[in-house]
Request: fold
Amino acid sequence: MEIEAVPERGPAAGPAAGERAVPVEWAVVESDVGPLFLAATVRGLVQVGFHADAARRERMPDRLAARFGAEPVECASGLLAEPIRRLGRYFAGEPDELDLPLDWSLTSGFNRQVLRELATGVPYGTVVGYGELARRVGQPGAAQAVGTAMGSNPLPVVVPCHRVVESDGGLGGFGGGLETKRRLLALEGVLPAPLF
Reply:
């Protein structure tokens, strides 16, 4: 996965003084788990949001405008063409690591460290426990903090937080809902396909 280094700043902060606004493109695409909100900067994909209904479509660009200092433009080509193509392949059942360029601007600190490890160290069709992921980033007692990092993941599916499960085999939580997590794991062959 190509990972673009960006300065460590808080995810809620807007552009720093003297820093230029960052152009953002966004689109909503249909998927097997419902409409996904996608946004990208020139650095890479910056956000994936589940359940992109009309209300969320109104709020998400405003949040990005506040963070990046520029009004996001709705566009399914340009910066989003490759992410849309690759996600289409993924949801068509073609094994794809979704190794897209990523913009990590919406996360920082420990959460960013955990998400980077997840992006590069947990391949398609596998799972990892919260505790194991904590151990991999040098914080063996931080399984709960890993759960928090998963819940704040701005890039679900592409940074596969659905692949993080409880050590006893339980699914654990998931910001997109447990049914979405089950569907993604079934798509990757980790769980049997749902019966509906």
Remarks:
- The first helix runs from residue 54 to 68.
